[in-house]
C-alpha cells in the first residue's frame, strides 16, 4: 500500500480521523471532530468504550495489537491518541498508512517516567530532585536524603494508581508493592505554592499556540478541580507558557502537549509530567476559550490553522469520581444544574468504581475563583466534596 504518512496538504472534512483510545478524552475529541465534519474511527480494548456512541467504527483491540492498528489506520487519513500507553510498534505500524500525530518518538519518551524525567533533565528543563530506584533498598537510601518521597511506577499510574508517598522507613515495602516491584522514579516531596498546567498545540510545520495557564488541585493523587485562567502574576504565566512552548518544540510534538508544573513559593517553576494528548486540567477550555482543547487537537493533527486560545470568560471544572455512586443516596445530577452557569458532563462509562473519573461539572464566572466556587457548589449538589484553594496562593495575590 502507498504510504500517506508524509502528506504536506491539510486533511480536510469529510476525511476520517483515527483515535487510539476511546476513553472520555477520545469521546470529547470525537464530538469536536464530528462538529467539524470529520468521521471518527476508534481503537480501544472495550468495544463499549466512552467514545463508541459517537464513533463511526470501533476496533476492539489491545493497545499493542499491531494488526488491529493497521486495520484502523488503513481506513483513516490521520491517527492521533488520547492515552500515551500505546505501544510504539503500533505507532510505527500506523505510520505506514497514515500520519501518526504524535508519533512513536514522542510517545517513547513520555510513556516511561524514567525516560521522561531523564529527558527533561538532560535537555536542561527544570525538574525537582529525583532518583531512579530499582529496589526497596534504593527507596530507603532515597528517603534518607529526601525525607518525604513520592515513589511512582515507570509506566501507567494515572489518578493515584502506581504511586505512593513515603515519609518513614516502615512504608517502604508497601510503596514498592504499589509501584509493581519494578524500576520506578523517586521524587522529593516539595512544599508547593500551587500546581499549574500549560497546554501547547502544535502543527506539523512547527506553528504553535499556548492556552492560558490552568490552576489545579489534586486530592488522593488525582486532579480534583481546575480553574482558568490561573489567577497568578502575568510574569509567572508568561514564563510557564514559554517553558511549555520550548518543551513542545524540543520534542517536536504534533498535536497537543499538556505540561504539569509545580510553582514554589520562591516563584520557581518545575516541570512535573508531560501528557501528549488532551488533559483533564483543560476541560474548562470548552467553557472558557474561543477554541476548546478538543477542537484544537483536531486542527493540529489535520494541519489546519490553529484556533484562538483566548479567554471568553473564566471557567472551572470539578471532577466527579465513582465514589459518588456508592454513597447512601444516588447522585443528584439535577442538583448540579441548579447553580447558574453550571453544566454537567458525564462520560458514558460503565461501572462507577471508586476513584474512577465518571464525569465533571463546569461553571463560568467573573473570575476564575468565582467560577471555581460555582463549580464546587454544583459538584456538592451531586454529592462531591472538594477542598478549597490552598492558602499558600495568598502569596501571589489569590483570594
Description:
The protein is of the alpha+beta class. The chain has three domains: 16-100, Rossmann fold (3-Layer(aba) Sandwich), CATH 3.40.50; 129-188, ATP-grasp fold, A domain (Dna Ligase, domain 1, 2-Layer Sandwich); 192-396, D-amino Acid Aminotransferase, Chain A, domain 1. It contains twelve helices and 17 strands. Strands 9, 10, 11, 12, 13, 14, 15, 16 and 17 form a nine-stranded antiparallel β-sheet that branches. A four-stranded parallel β-sheet has the order 3-2-1-4, with helices on both faces. The protein has a four-stranded antiparallel β-sheet with strand order 5-8-6-7, sandwiched between helices. Strand 9 and strand 10 form a beta hairpin. It starts with 15 loop residues before the first strand and ends in a 17-residue tail after the last helix. The relative contact order is 0.12.
Notable traits:
nine-stranded antiparallel β-sheet; Dna Ligase, domain 1; disordered N terminus; four-stranded parallel β-sheet; single chain; D-amino Acid Aminotransferase, Chain A, domain 1; alpha+beta; Rossmann fold; 399 residues
What secondary-structure arrangement, pairings included, does this model have?
Layout: E1 16-20, H1 24-36, E2 39-44, E3 57-60, H2 66-73, E4 78-81, H3 88-94, H4 104-110, H5 113-122, E5 130-133, H6 136-146, E6 149-153, E7 163-166, H7 172-178, E8 184-188, E9 192-202, E10 208-210, E11 214-219, E12 222-228, H8 234-251, E13 255-264, E14 269-275, H9 285-288, H10 293-301, E15 315-321, H11 333-336, E16 342-346, E17 357-364, H12 368-382
Parallel strand pairs: 1-2, 1-4, 2-3
Antiparallel strand pairs: 5-8, 6-7, 6-8, 9-10, 9-11, 9-13, 11-12, 12-15, 13-14, 15-17, 16-17
Helix pairs in contact: 1-10, 2-3, 3-4
Amino acid at each position: 500500500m502507498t504510504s500517506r504518512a508524509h502528506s504536506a496538504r491539510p486533511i480536510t472534512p469529510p476525511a476520517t480521523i483515527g483515535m487510539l483510545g476511546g476513553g472520555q478524552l477520545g469521546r470529547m475529541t470525537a464530538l469536536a471532530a464530528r462538529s467539524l465534519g470529520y468521521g471518527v474511527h476508534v481503537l480501544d480494548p472495550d468495544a463499549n468504550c466512552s467514545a463508541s456512541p459517537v464513533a463511526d467504527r470501533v476496533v476492539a483491540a489491545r493497545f499493542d495489537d499491531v494488526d488491529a492498528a493497521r486495520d484502523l489506520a488503513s481506513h483513516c487519513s490521520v491517527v492521533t491518541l488520547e492515552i500515551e500507553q500505546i505501544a510504539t510498534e503500533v505507532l510505527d505500524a500506523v505510520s505506514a498508512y497514515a500520519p501518526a500525530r504524535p508519533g512513536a518518538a514522542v510517545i517513547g519518551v513520555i510513556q516511561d517516567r524514567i525516560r521522561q524525567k531523564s529527558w527533561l533533565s538532560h535537555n536542561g528543563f527544570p525538574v525537582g530532585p529525583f532518583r531512579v530506584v530499582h529496589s526497596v533498598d534504593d527507596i530507603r537510601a532515597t528517603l534518607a536524603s529526601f525525607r518525604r518521597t513520592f515513589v511512582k511506577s515507570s509506566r501507567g499510574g494515572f489518578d493515584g494508581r502506581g504511586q505512593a508517598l513515603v515519609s518513614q522507613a516502615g512504608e517502604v515495602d508497601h510503596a514498592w508493592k504499589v509501584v509493581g516491584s519494578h524500576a520506578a522514579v523517586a521524587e522529593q516531596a516539595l512544599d508547593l505554592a500551587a500546581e499549574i498546567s500549560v497546554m501547547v498545540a502544535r502543527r506539523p510545520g512547527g506553528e504553535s499556540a499556548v492556552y492560558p495557564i490552568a490552576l489545579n488541585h489534586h486530592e488522593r493523587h488525582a486532579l480534583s478541580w481546575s480553574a482558568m485562567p490561573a489567577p497568578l502574576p502575568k510574569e509567572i504565566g508568561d514564563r510557564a507558557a514559554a517553558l511549555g512552548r520550548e518543551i513542545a518544540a524540543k520534542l517536536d510534538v504534533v498535536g497537543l502537549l499538556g505540561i504539569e508544573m509545580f510553582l514554589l513559593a520562591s516563584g520557581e517553576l518545575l516541570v512535573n509530567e508531560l501528557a501528549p494528548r488532551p488533559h483533564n486540567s483543560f476541560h474548562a477550555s470548552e467553557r472558557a476559550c474561543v477554541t476548546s482543547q478538543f477542537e484544537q487537537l483536531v486542527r493540529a493533527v489535520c494541519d489546519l490553522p490553529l484556533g484562538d486560545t483566548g479567554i471568553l470568560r473564566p471557567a472551572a471544572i470539578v471532577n466527579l469520581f465513582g465514589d459518588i455512586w456508592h454513597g447512601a443516596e444516588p447522585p443528584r445530577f439535577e442538583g448540579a444544574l441548579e447553580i447558574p452557569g453550571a453544566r454537567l458532563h458525564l462520560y458514558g462509562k460503565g461501572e462507577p468504581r471508586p476513584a474512577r473519573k465518571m464525569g465533571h461539572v463546569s461553571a463560568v464566572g467573573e473570575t476564575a475563583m468565582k467560577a471555581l466556587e460555582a463549580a464546587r457548589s454544583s459538584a456538592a449538589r451531586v454529592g462531591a466534596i472538594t477542598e478549597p484553594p490552598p492558602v499558600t496562593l495568598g502569596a501571589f495575590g489569590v483570594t
